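Support reply, case 0932

Customer input (verbatim):
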Amino acid sequence: MEWLWIAVATCVLVPCSVKGNDWWWKYEEGTRHYSKEALHQEFPEKTRPVSFKHPLFQCPDMSPSPSIPTSVEFVKAADIKVIAALGDSLTTAIGANATTVLGIPIEFRHVSWSIGGYGSFQDVITLANIVKLFNPKLLGAAPGKTIHGLQGDLRETGFNLAVTGHNTFNLPSQTRHLIDTLQAHKGLNFREDWKLLTIMMGMNDICDYCKDKTLFSADNFIHYMAASLEMLMSEVPRMIVNVVQILPMQTLREVQKPTPGCLLQRSFCSCLIEPAAKSPELQELVNINLEFQVKFKFFKKGHIYCHIQRQFLLLLREDWSSCWTPGASSATTLPSFSSLF
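Our regenerated output:
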């Protein structure tokens, strides 16, 4: 029932977080900013007709291999039979399509960037929908929505087994859940099917760092990540694991509008949001964020994640480390970008 606490927190945080006698006016102003109409007026470039479709996508070769590849170096996109994802709220896509505070507890897994299976590529561009262009029978893409705090069914989650609020120390248990789920699923051939797994984890470690600097250290981040990858390498054949770098998170401090969602964010990521600008506490957190990214960058150099038979491949995506985030060069950060946190 954690979603209920989110609703209760909204009622508590809205009046308590705004000083003075005009808090109700500021609350109504925040609610106005959260309406569909206001968002469409403020960000017209984000508005598109209901009938909008992304252009067709074609590659010269979209066919599978003549026979199932036995080595990862020969795997084509159309050879991937199963897709899965592990992580936190960025993968559950909590609040991703929310237009009011009431939508924040909803996990919009079907539009999650790495595994959302809503419609097709022309409807929503996700990694799963891209792979579906090559293999329309792809298994595991998330077909539906879930409510945070309530147990989701595979018919809603697909193989999106991420959990909102999880830290990196939770990743081994997510990994065990995934392995057991894949082994038990009757719709796939565990030994023969090629599987694509995306992992993005660690942002909550930054958000919680000031609460336990040992548990949420960069060294522990690497430790739990390595433990999870070793489980996958030793137990899951024919798997490509795509591990994505964590974001530079300081930009989230720029979210200042008095909306219920922005006020809630102050409690969800208090270690980042509450320190004063240029304070030692904030600088320490920025440095830790960078340390996570640096240790991640050199993570693969100290580990061997290739089977002799080449049935396991680890890809480390470092692109986020210096990425531009919406609003990073201006005074505002787009609400649609920060809604996932």
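We compared this against your earlier run and they match. Two observations from our side: The chain has 13 helices and six strands. Residues 206 and 317 are 19 Å apart (CA to CA). Please reopen the case if you see a mismatch on your end.
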